[in-house]
Amino acid sequence: MGEMKLQATQNPLKGEIEVPGDKSISHRAVIFGSLAKGTTKVTHFLDGEDCMRTVNAFKKMGVSIEKQGLTLTINGNGIEALTEPIEPLYFGNSGTTARLMLGLLSGLPLFTTIYGDPSLSKRPMDRVGIPLSIMGASFDGREGGSLLPLSIRGKTLNGINYTLPVKSAQVKSAILLAGLHADGETKVTENTPTRNHTENMLKAFGADLTTDGHTITVTNKNTLSAADVYVPGDISSAAFFLAAAAIIPGSKLTLKNVGLNETRTGIIDVLRAMNADIQIHNEQSGGGELFGDITIAHRKLRSTTIEGEIIPSLIDEIPIIALIATQAEGTTIIRDAEELKVKETDRIAAAADLLSTLGASVEPTDDGMIIHGKTDLTGGKVASYNDHRIAMSAVIASLIAKDEVLLDDVSSIAISYPGFFDDLAEIKSK
Ligand code: S3P
Fold it and tell me: Per the residue annotation, which of 50, 316, 387, 423 is the catalytic one?
């Protein structure tokens, strides 16, 4: 696809869409389905590039995974049945694949090499490597084993009692995955709760896992058994259309079957604090995950402050929240979000660059942004930094820009939302 010219329309967005499956849950469904004994059916799977990296990794380790449309059929034979891949495993842009697979591979009697694209090759792996080394893992890679490519000589690990120094569900999940086949108990404590899809799904697959306050304990006692997984819509993908409807006068949208796990719904709380007209209905649950429909209509917005415990529950939404803040009256402050600097790109710098180029008043800080609203957006030439969420934020910004926006590259959008432009066209035409 590459470069794209985006014409401002200012037209209201109307209608109903179902956003693609949740990226975090899709990864985990493939991982646990592959480790379990029996046939796991995954429906409404996200077949974006990132989750397909996880699928391909398990196929290369001998797991039979068939894909028909958005349904996966995984025939797992248990952790012991995984075979040594004959070639290095390529994880593309996917941080979740890299961190979670590191946790798994460290404790298997296999030799593997893993690598990624230029963005993933810059992202810190030592946040996972340090606790895994304490468990006895042995691997090596660039910069003392802190950057990909990494080679892993798997071996039997020991349980650990570890308090996360970073607010990261990927690190928590990597340690829990290692703990599934380590000797003794593995305990992970998080001071700030992060997304808990790993815990929910491990329980659904029959793992010996308990949660007590902020501490999760796992042992190698139970083997996983297959369980069907319905993947709810990804609130991180829905966020782009929630934002569009919130800022474009006359808009009213319903997003169907969106995941509403409270470790992920920070954007809904923020939209409410900003005076958005947002309602949730048809709430249901399955596999430990809540989901439902979200209806949002445009209304005049006001600024807010976003900080502390809420941050992990909206971390991936901060670039699009920053765009919403440019259209809210007053000064919005985002802090405690230093993790943004180690995402697919430095998302503090990238979001501030995008919005400033379009005429907004955004000051990047060490751990967030300060946004002065409300400002009209102009057109301009903007960069996606090869980051799917920055690219989609630019597309939504262009809908309210006064002039044409020239976006350097839209190809990264396929990482998490392959049908993004089709869904946008659908709600633009109503
Ligand atoms: C994810 C956790 C988050 C998030 C990422 C997906 C996951 O990353 O930003 O998009 O699936 O566990 P961190 O764990 O690095 O915060």
Answer: 316
Q: What is the DSSP-derived secondary structure letter of residue 45? A: -
At residue 1, does pLDDT exceed 70?
A: no
311 lines ligand 1 (CB under 6 A): no
Pocket probe for ligand 1: among 27, 128, 166, 170, the residue whose CB has the most ligand atoms within 8 Å is 170
Q: Please name the residue ranges forming H helices in 79-123.
A: 95-105
> Taking the model in full, what pTM does it have?
0.98
What CATH number belongs to 4-21+232-428?
3.65.10.10
Residues of the binding site: 23-24, 28, 95, 123, 168, 170, 316, 343, 347, 389
For residue 334, the surrounding DSSP H or E stretch is strand 328-334
Active site residue 422: no
**pLDDT above 90 (res 246):** yes
Residue whose CA lies nearest to ligand 1 atom number 13? 168
Instruction: Using DSSP bridges, classify how beta strands 37-43 and 229-230 pair: parallel, antiparallel or unpaired.
Output: parallel
Report residue 139 CA to chain centroid gap.
Answer: 26
Q: Mean of the per-residue pLDDT values for the chain?
A: 97
Looking at 1.10.10.10, 3.10.20.310, 3.65.10.10, 3.30.420.40, the CATH number of the domain 23-214 comes to: 3.65.10.10
